[in-house]
């Protein structure tokens, strides 16, 4: 009888719902913070992603700022902030704040208006780089300075079409940033119009720093611009040109950015 009762109890227990085993879902990995900055210049809010160096929250130190074009989470924010983090861990670069500006319409924001009718037809929204610069100068940089402990030292970095914007900003509004990193910039844009316009503009670039690189690419307009720098750059413009023929347009960015950041934000010699 007892054995039969035990079997009955076991059968009833088997019919009860079994509680689900709690699964370890881990915790989010947070490397920065994302904001939407209202912008009158752009007519819409813009996504800004910020990476702060370790120890920022508990300290009083002021930091240089690296402004990253194409700085969205699905763009270049992770690998450039990773370079900044590596510099901190390895002690090979000074700590910095990375501010990534997410691109929405790259040709609209990063390219100047082309005279070439074919380009105007192919890219009808292109040509508002001056407006984007107003956003950086009048809205983003003041927001960063008010919110974070900045040192006043800053740099602008971009690759490809963003590199075109970097070079155009150096030439047309050089005081906006202290240093400029242009990696495989699309200086071919509009039949190299920016390179052709550069000679009289170079005179205003004194006191700035430029790091210029290009991959194994023909017709980018970078080599003619480098030749122009060699012939006409003012002595007060510190510039570096380092071609990387072993890289392609698709592979140059990370290694080139690492080299540029290591030089521009080098740890002072003891």
UniProtKB/TrEMBL annotation:
Keywords: Hydrolase, Signal. The keyword Metal-binding does not apply. GO terms for molecular function: hydrolase activity. It comes from the Bacteria. The keyword Hydrolase applies. Residues 1-22 form the signal peptide. Belongs to the esterase D family. This is Alpha/beta hydrolase. It comes from Sphingomonas canadensis.
């Amino acid at each position: 009888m007892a054995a039969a009762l035990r079997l009955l109890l076991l059968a009833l227990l088997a019919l009860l719902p079994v509680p689900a085993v709690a699964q370890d879902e881990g915790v989010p990995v947070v490397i920065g913070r994302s904001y939407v900055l209202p912008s009158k210049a752009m007519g819409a809010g813009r996504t800004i992603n910020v990476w702060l160096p370790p120890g920022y929250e508990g300290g009083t130190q002021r930091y240089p700022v690296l402004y990253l074009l194409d700085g969205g989470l699905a763009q270049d924010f992770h690998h450039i902030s990773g370079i900044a983090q590596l510099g901190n861990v390895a002690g090979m670069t000074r700590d910095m704040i990375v501010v990534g500006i997410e691109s929405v319409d790259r040709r609209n924001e990063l390219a100047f208006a082309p005279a070439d009718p074919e380009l105007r037809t192919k890219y009808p929204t292109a040509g508002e780089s001056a407006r984007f610069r107003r956003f950086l100068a009048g809205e983003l940089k003041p927001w960063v300075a008010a919110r974070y402990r900045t040192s006043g030292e800053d740099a602008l970095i971009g690759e490809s079409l963003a590199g075109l914007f970097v070079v155009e900003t150096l030439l047309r509004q050089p005081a906006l940033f202290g240093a400029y990193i242009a990696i495989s910039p699309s200086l071919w844009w509009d039949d190299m119009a920016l390179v052709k316009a550069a000679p009289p503009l170079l005179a205003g670039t004194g006191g700035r720093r430029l790091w210029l690189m290009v991959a194994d690419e023909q017709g980018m307009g970078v080599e003619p611009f480098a030749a122009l720098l060699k012939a006409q750059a003012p002595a007060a413009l510190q510039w570096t040109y380092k071609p990387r023929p072993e890289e392609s347009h698709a592979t140059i960015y990370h290694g080139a950015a690492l080299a540029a950041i290591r030089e521009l934000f080098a740890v002072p010699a003891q």
